[in-house]
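step=encode ok
step=design start
structure_in=
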């Protein structure tokens, strides 16, 4: 289960079903919905990747990334883009991957 980061105060590690942030009381219901949708898109992307539907996989990774800048979405997009090869957008995904990596290691 992934966790949420409060959009208001930046508190991390909140349970995905939290109704509100325990620190600042910011409502998290909508955020949790977006987060859940982002994960569904990521899972679709992964399934399509396994089936070899690279273009579709990449499209779902893109939707997932748009909903939530998660490392898993960046990884799925990166792998799909690399597998597509040629003029694909793998450099973009590489940057996104680096971005999520930096954030994961940075101060929270
Ligand atoms: Zn908060």
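sequence_out=
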């Amino acid at each position: 289960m992934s966790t949420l980061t409060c959009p208001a105060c930046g508190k991390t590690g909140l349970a995905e079903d939290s109704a509100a942030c325990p620190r600042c009381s910011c409502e998290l219901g909508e955020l949790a919905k977006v987060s859940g949708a982002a994960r569904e898109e990521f899972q679709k992307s992964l399934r399509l990747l396994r089936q070899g539907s690279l273009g579709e996989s990449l499209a779902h990774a893109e939707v997932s990334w748009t909903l939530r800048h998660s490392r898993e979405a960046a990884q799925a997009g990166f792998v799909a883009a690399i597998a597509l090869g040629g003029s694909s957008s793998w450099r973009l995904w590489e940057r996104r991957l680096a971005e999520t990596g930096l954030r994961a290691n940075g101060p929270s």
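step=design ok
step=annotate ok -> The two ends are 19 Å apart (CA to CA).
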